[in-house]
Amino acid sequence: MRARRLHSVLEERLEQFPAVVLLGARQVGKTTLACELARNRASVYLDLEAPRDRAKLQDPALYLSAHLNKLVILDEVQRIPGLFETLRGLIDAGRRVGRRAGRFLLLGSASPKLLRQSGESLAGRIAYVELAPLDALEVETLELERLWLRGGFPDSFLATDDRRSLIWRENFIRTYLERDIPALGPRVPAETLRRLWTMLAHGQGGPLNAAQLARSLAIDGKTVRRYVDLLVDLLLVRRLVPLHANVRKRLVKSPRVIVRDSGIVHALLGLRDRDDLLGHPVTGRSWEAFVIETLIQTAPDSVTPCFYRSTAGAEIDLILEFPAGSRWAIEIKHSLSPKLERGFYHARAEVEPSRCFVVYPGEERYPIKKGVEAISLRELASELASLVS
User: Which listed CATH number (3.40.50.300, 3.30.450.20, 3.30.450.40, 1.10.3210.10) goes with 6-130?
Assistant: First the structure.
């Protein structure tokens, strides 16, 4: 059992909203976190994948109205999409008798149908919280390399050795492709989607080239984009968009595509252990994507992540835009002696960030150039997390 940073956030949202949706990929720890939160309050837990629990909701209004003073946890709520209309009536009825918050905690695997139904039926009554895999602030410093290799899914990270971790990830991928994605509705050939997922892993963090992927998969570009959309909706892949800056440069417009969990990347590429990883061409890009994903997850929700790249080669790996208009520029190097290329300084002059960092695998924080600091991943993640209100 690892303490999750989102525990306090989830508590706060339940104190404010009658319904909270906890979203995340399967096996990321949503049920464990929900049950841990429910230990200190009257609650009811229903797993909507279990026939016995689904049977209790044959008349959902009748069953749920009997638990007015309890937190009702509905796991895999996308299994009964029509439930949201009932929840709206129960929430409004509860408000009239003073029960304004903490009614329902809904756990879901982020299907598009789930988001659409909840948005239409519970507008103004619902908050969303996303639970990602374990991140750098939820493990010890000495465990950070293991987190990078195995990824943050708890069963993979906590496996007794690398071999068992890889077996878990391989079965996770197979189960997602053969059971979970078909259960959510889309008719997608499992082998085609696996090949696409693997290609994205090989090009980890690179620009989305739908035409090239389409040729390799013998499908059309629109189908590639639809499949990538599906992986994004399932919180398995992230599109990192380019910065739209008002500069006199031609900018790269294609988003970068990141497989969000580094352990899944390494499983798709057949990398068994640290030696395999460090000897593979994906090493630098995998570390870069691992850092990007960690910083996005620890930054406040109001921060917008993007990247900057001009056609002339000026580039910054990650830019965090804050609501007040300030920007942090972050370059990422998998080297204990990080050095910045000329393209970073050109991009810095064009973007004019308020702070600049180079994230590297070491622990010491020190200046590289005036206004540019080398910093560890944990320290920068901690600094961002401290900004979350």
Answer: 3.40.50.300
Quick one: DSSP state of residue 26? T
Looking at residue 281, what is its pLDDT? Answer: 96
Residues of the chain with CATH 3.40.50.300: 6-130
- Rounded CA separation 34/21 (Å): 11
Query: What are the structure tokens assigned to 385, written together?
Result: 């997390």
Taking the C-alpha atoms of residue 331 and residue 375, their distance in angstroms, rounded to an integer, is 10
Q: Among all chains, which residue has been given the structure tokens 């937190």?
A: 71
What are the residues whose beta carbons fall under 8 Å from the beta carbon of 279, sequence distance 6 or more?
none
Buried b (16+ CB within 10 A) or exposed e, 178-192: eebbeebebebeeeb
Residue whose entry in the numeric block shows the structure tokens 């996005």: 296
Here the contacts of 154-158 (C-beta below 8 Å, separation 24 or greater) are 154/2, 154/27, 154/28, 154/29, 154/32, 155/27, 156/263, 157/133, 157/263, 158/2
Mean pLDDT of the chain: 91
Please say whether the beta carbons of 139 and 153 come within 8 A.
no
pLDDT for position 247: 61
Residue 32 main-chain phi, psi, to 5 deg: -60, -45
Angle between helices 210-217 and 190-202 (to 10 degrees): 130
pTM over 0.90: yes
Ranges under pLDDT 70 in the chain = 1, 110-117, 119, 184-186, 245-250, 389
Nearest to 251 by CA among 135, 179, 346: 346
C-alpha 173: how far from chain center:
16
Give the whole-angstrom CA distance, residue 208 versus residue 189.
21
Give the pLDDT confidence score for residue 216 in this predicted structure. Answer: 92
Q: How far is residue 104's CA from residue 14's CA, in Å, rounded to a whole number? A: 8
Q: Tell me if residue 318 falls in helix, strand or coil.
A: strand
Q: What stretch of H or E contains 327? A: strand 327-332
| pLDDT of amino acid 85 | 85
